[in-house]
Design brief:
Distance between the termini: 15 Å
Oligomer: single chain
Number of helices: 10
Mean pLDDT: 91
Low-confidence stretches: none
CATH topology of the largest domain: Rossmann fold
Structural class: alpha/beta
Order of helices and strands: EHEEHEHEHEHEHHEEHEHEH
Shape: elongated
Radius of gyration: 21 Å
CATH class of the largest domain: Alpha Beta
Number of domains: 2
Largest sheet: 6 strands, mixed
């Protein structure tokens, strides 16, 4: 295992405290942050092509702040007023609190899950008469959500924004010891920017089963995988790997 001196994380730089900052200080590394994908809004005309009536849904599912931004943004584009009786189902408390940017929070019916869509399903099933709208990206629009499919609930996926590969051409001659990925779209962006990417000694840190599958399909080597039994988070997996790779030879 070669010593690790530099890491590129394919996400925006964290705000506030982060375990990655501690890893950087602990091992005296260079850690850069660079989103491999970015979000773009869609036009009202593009949305209308889906033939979805927003006001025919009395409940909205939010799995991200992006989805919330673009849902309320689309309502504004279409000059629609969000009904006061609309119920909001958010996958986490943090996303629920973000609603304060758009509505009078204390006057609305808001329900939360425990960090995942699956944890939100039982809460939603207490409202079987509701018609749910699921604002999402073009990527999520085509994915199957088993928990939703099996819930028996009435829901509609609505593409509100699109995920686009970022321009990474300035990284063409920059080398990192470890590249960290959290989604299949990050792998897609890597090859869209660098079609002839040769892994060589570059180590890949991969989070999640879908990302793992995407890497395997590309025939790449996976050096660090999370979550695992010893490391439920990517930061813990990196810490354990670097500790082993950077230890001094006796």
């Amino acid at each position: 295992m070669k010593k690790v001196k530099s890491i590129l994380i394919s996400q925006p730089k964290p705000e506030g405290k982060s375990p990655y900052f501690l890893i950087q200080k602990k091992y005296k590394l260079k850690i850069d942050y660079r989103p491999f994908m970015h979000v773009e809004e869609i036009s009202a005309i593009e949305f209308k092509e889906q033939r979805i009536s927003l006001l025919n849904h009395d409940s909205v599912i939010f799995t991200s702040k992006n989805a919330m931004d673009h849902y309320f943004g689309m309502m504004e584009k279409l000059r629609l007023r969000v009904p006061d009786f609309t119920k909001y189902f958010c996958v986490s408390e943090a996303i629920a609190h973000y609603l304060q940017n758009f509505i009078t929070y204390r006057k609305r019916k808001i329900f939360t899950g425990e960090q995942s869509l699956a944890s939100l399903i039982p809460v939603m099933q207490k409202h079987p008469e509701s018609k749910f709208l699921f604002p999402c990206s073009d990527v999520l629009k085509i994915q199957t959500h088993t928990s939703l499919e099996e819930s028996g609930l009435q829901y509609t996926k609505a593409k509100m924004y699109k995920v686009v590969c970022s321009d990474l051409s300035d990284l063409a001659d920059v080398k990192y010891d470890i590249l960290v990925f959290f989604s299949p779209t990050g792998i897609k962006s890597l090859f869209e920017n660098f079609p002839n990417f040769d892994q060589g000694d570059t180590r890949l840190a991969i989070f999640g089963s879908t990302t793992l599958q995407s890497v395997k399909e590309r025939g790449l080597r996976i050096d660090i995988e999370a979550p695992n039994k010893k490391a439920p988070s990517m930061s813990m997996a990196l810490d354990q790997y670097i500790k082993e790779a950077n230890k001094r030879k006796r």
